[in-house]
Amino acid sequence: MLIATNKLWFTITYLINLERTYILMKVILGSNSPRRRELLGYILTDFEVEVRSIDESYPPEMPVNEIAAYLAEQKAEAFNEDEFKDAVVITADTTVALDDKLLEKPADKFEAKEMLMQISDRKHLVISAACVMYNGKKDVFSEITEVYFNKLSEKEIDFYIDRYQPFDKAGAYGIQEWIGMIGIEKIIGSYYNVVGLPIHLLYKKLLSMGVV
């Protein structure tokens, strides 16, 4: 009888502590990207979206494979206030690199076309980074995916830009869109990383924190 009572007590105590953990760990996605919101929704059912504006410049001498992690951390720093001390804040950034040159979001159709002509029939790198901040402590991690494009015709490029308006995407394309379906020969690495989030690494981190 005593053993059964002790087991019941430990079970109740465990459940109470577990519930407190989940209550305390409110999750905030610091990104207005619909693609990141969708990806996070696959591993978390309850989170809020809040965006803080930051200066997205970076040191000119910084290696291209470190810029995404730097910007993800800067975005998290914008939430480093008492208001968010008990929340798990997730921020992210994605960069596209071709021959050690960064291909950022195109300003207009001309820049988008120029970028797509550059990556046509070439390999480039997509680096996505995430920063998880809790109680002022930040953990930053990133993933690199190699993307190989077939040769794109000018007609295909013009059609894609006119139809999909990829001006909010680094490198001027979305792998999940038409141009990814017809233009990408292969990738080496995570598909979801190219979409915009190293979701497998993020899942492992949140799992270790007891959030998922």
Structure summarized in a few sentences:
With about 210 residues, this protein is α/β, with parallel strands linked by helices. The chain is about 45% helix and about 25% strand.
Please write out the topology.
Elements: H1 2-24, E1 26-29, H2 34-43, E2 48-49, H3 64-77, E3 87-98, E4 101-103, H4 109-119, E5 123-134, E6 137-149, H5 154-164, H6 178-183, E7 184-188, H7 191-195, H8 199-209
Parallel strand pairs: 1-2, 1-3
Antiparallel strand pairs: 3-4, 3-5, 5-6, 6-7
Helix pairs in contact: 4-5
SS field, number of helical segments: 8
CATH topology: Maf protein
CATH class: Alpha Beta
**Class by SSE composition:** alpha/beta
Q: Find the count of extended strands (DSSP E, 2+ residues).
A: 7
Secondary-structure element order, N to C: HEHEHEEHEEHHEHH
Our estimate of the beta-strand percent is 15-25%
Arithmetic mean pLDDT: 91
Could you estimate the helical fraction of the residues in percent?
Answer: 40-55%
- The structural domain count equals 1
Distance between the termini: 35 Å
Largest sheet: 7 strands, mixed
At CATH level 2, the architecture is Alpha-Beta Complex
Radius of gyration: 21 Å
The low-pLDDT segments are 11-23
Overall body shape: elongated
What do these coordinates show?
Strands 1, 2, 3, 4, 5, 6 and 7 form a seven-stranded mixed sheet that branches. About 6% of the residues have low confidence. The longest helix is centred in the first third of the chain and has 23 residues. This protein has eight helices and seven strands; from the N terminus they run αβαβαββαββααβαα. The chain is α/β, with parallel strands linked by helices and 212 residues long. It has a single domain, classed as Maf protein, CATH 3.90.950.10.
